Amino acid sequence: MGSAPRDAFIDWQTRFGVDGAEIVRRLAKAQTDHGTITRSDLWTVARDLGMPVAAVAGTAAFYADLAVPTQRARHIRVCRGTACFVATCGGADELNLEGDLGGSASVQHVYCLGYCYTAPAALDGAIPVVGSRRLLADTTDDRPEDAPSIPFRAASSEAVVLAGLTGVAQPWQVWPEVVKTRTREDIRTELLRAGLRGRGGAGYPIAAKWADAAAGDPPRYVVANGDEGDPGSYCDRLLMERDPSRVLEGLALAAYGVGAQHAYVLVRSEYPAAVDALRAAVDEARHAGRLGHGVHGTEVDLDVSILVGAGSYVAGEETALLRSAQGLRGGVQVRPPYPTVRGLAGRPTVVNNVETLAAVPWIAQHGGLTYADLGLPEEKGTKLVSLNQLFRHPGVYEVEFGTSIRSIVETLGGGLRDGHVLRAVQIGGPLGGFLGPDDLDLPLSAPALAAAGAALGHGGIVAIDDTVGGQELLRHLWTFADAESCGACAPCRVGSRQGLRLCSSPDHRPPPERLLRTMERGSLCAFGRGIAGAVRSLLRVYASEFGEAE
């Protein structure tokens, strides 16, 4: 591992004690102050923090939030995620915001705001506004706060992740007992017995990740990935906004199991209410002695910091996320070394998704074997799924692995709203894939979905009706790929651009298999590989519209 390439900017931060997260904070302030980030701002931030200008300029150019000029009075983020795309009939109903607002506000298009259950949506400043024809009022004084709360239901035999929200468990119920009476090895053993895997899409065994990091020399870190980027999934927003203490308790247990004294939560900027909720929960936990020096009268020290992203889908990948947390471009890094060996500040680091961490308190309390009884023998436990607004009963549902997709779509979701006919579902976000109405008897299981050419991802299930055609969806998918590719590798960067060019040509050509194969085999991370798989699944489900593409 010692011969692996190192990151010069991270080494610089470590050597000179630079707080990398301050780069994004100061650039965001400069943008707020000036409406855009000027060259002078780049030099000022670099000088004040003692960082190379190239590092600061790279950050400013990479993140969507920093690259889009804003008006100080009003900035509006409009969702173009799949659920909102479908809700506006493939964009045909979308408002011309720049014209409607007469230049009085700056407009930024983003790929998910977490309001898929009541799409379409926008954020007017930090205020969510939903509904296509009354999306935005003319003045800031007239903006309605009309977004309903996220509906949720525990549809499994046990509420695990939703235990706090359903009232089954109280916040911080497990942490005091664990930190006083149980060893770090005890917690890791329970996670091993549970068979818990990461819920962010990769599905890596959590116990193995914790053990790898714990074997490294201190200091060690734990990072909660709250950069839920899959358009169509909003379960992390539910947890961070409505049950932040449970997320923090899971994070504390992870830090204890790894032997970390500092943990972080990185929240996507599109979730401002989640940022506020988590910060308040951290303050409350410190005041109650659950965090800080000598937690609950023990020799354990632990503190938590809340970081805010700056707009990048790829920054949800763990190596990119760690660079984002350090204020650098969120490009994907070559592995190995893995973050458990060389992560934050070059130290052993565990990155776990928010939903994953929210399951840990239940496992610590009830035991890993009890958790392992849920779900399937090969895929244990429960999963949160998010249903979009075309369903009669949209919302977040906790289900056991093995539940059929049809049961989720037709029983829990109630099928589609009156007047809509199901044409397909997108599962697992843009990198997941598409299933047709005849595919719904598949179980909710990563292997079963993979065999059908799809992926579970973060559990978003977006119903698509027959008002949106396959060609429109294909262009939507390639537009997303072109916009969100981090550009670190040519197969993904060039392939996404080429795919968009082909489907936008007058003859609307689908991509040749050789293009998809190049992206699949040559991309540095799951982004390029996932796009290739998703395109194939779309061409299969909509084969009648693409002729020979079948």
At a glance:
With 550 residues, the chain is an alpha/beta fold.
Q: Explain this structure to me?
A:
This protein has 550 residues and is an alpha/beta fold. 41% of the residues lie in helices and 13% in strands. The strands form three sheets. The protein has a six-stranded mixed sheet. A four-stranded mixed sheet has the order 2-1-3-4, with no helix packed on it. The chain starts with 7 loop residues before the first helix and ends with a helix. The model has no long low-confidence stretch (mean pLDDT 90).
Relevant terms:
41% helix; 14 strands; six-stranded mixed sheet; alpha/beta; four-stranded mixed sheet; 23 helices; 550 residues
Helix and strand arrangement:
Blueprint: H1 8-16, H2 21-34, H3 39-49, H4 53-62, H5 64-67, E1 75-79, H6 82-87, H7 97-100, E2 106-110, E3 121-124, E4 127-130, E5 152-154, H8 175-181, H9 184-194, H10 206-214, E6 221-226, H11 235-242, H12 244-258, E7 262-267, H13 272-287, E8 303-308, H14 318-325, E9 349-353, H15 354-366, H16 368-372, E10 382-387, E11 395-400, H17 405-412, E12 422-427, E13 433-435, H18 446-451, E14 460-465, H19 470-484, H20 490-503, H21 513-522, H22 526-541, H23 543-546
Parallel strand pairs: 1-2, 5-11, 6-7, 6-9, 7-8, 10-14
Antiparallel strand pairs: 1-3, 3-4, 10-11, 12-13, 12-14
Helix pairs in contact: 2-3, 3-4, 9-10, 9-12, 11-12, 11-13, 12-15, 19-20, 19-22, 20-21, 20-22, 21-22
Strand order of the largest sheet: 5-11-10-14-12-13
Low-confidence stretches: none
What best-fitting shape do the alpha-carbon axes yield? globular
Sheet with the most strands, sense and barrel status: 6 strands, mixed
Structure class? alpha/beta
Helix content: 40-55%
Per DSSP, the total helix count is: 23
Strand content: 5-15%
- DSSP strand tally: 14
pLDDT averaged residue by residue: 90
